[in-house]
Amino acid sequence: MIIRILLLLLLSCVTNGKVNVRPVVSGVRIESEANSPGFSGYGDAGELLVEANAPVEVVIFGHGLESVEMVAFTDSVCLTSEFNISESAFHIHKDMKIVFKYSFIAWDKPWRICLKSDIYGLIQIDDDRTWIQTVQSVHETFMPVGVQVAILLLLFSISALCSGLTLGLMALTPQELKILMKSGTDTEKKHATAIYPIRMEGNRLLCTVIIMNVIVNTGITLLFDDLAEGLIAFLASTIGIVIFGEILPQSICVKYGLAVGANTIYITKFFMFVLFPVTYPLAKILDKYAGVDIDLVNRSKMVEMLKMNMESGACDIDLSTLKIAIGAMELTKKSVRDVMTDIDDVFMLSEDQILNAETMTIISDSGYTRIPVYEKNNKNKVKNLLYVSDLALIGKDNNITVKAVAGFNKRRLRIVDENMPLVSLMDEFKMGEYHLAMVAKAQEVKKLHNGKFVDIKMDNFIVESMQLVEATMLPQHDSEENPVTLVGLITLEDITEELLQAEITDETDCYVTDDAQKKRRTNTSKKNAPDLFCSEKKSERLSLHMLEMTEKWLLEKTPLFSGMNPKAFENLIQRNIREVLIVPPKNSTSPGTLNLFESGMMSKRFVLILEGKAKIRFNQKDLVFEVGPWTCFGEAILDKMEDCLMEKKEPSTGFFFIPDYDLTVSGTCRFLQISTGSLLHSLRITKFVREMRSPKISITSDDDTIPGSRKVSFLETSPNGGRKRSSTSVMSSLALPPARLAAKIASVEELKPLIE
Question: Over the stretch 720-749, which tens digit does the pLDDT of each residue have?
Answer without folding.
Answer: 444 444 333 333 333 334 433 333 444 444
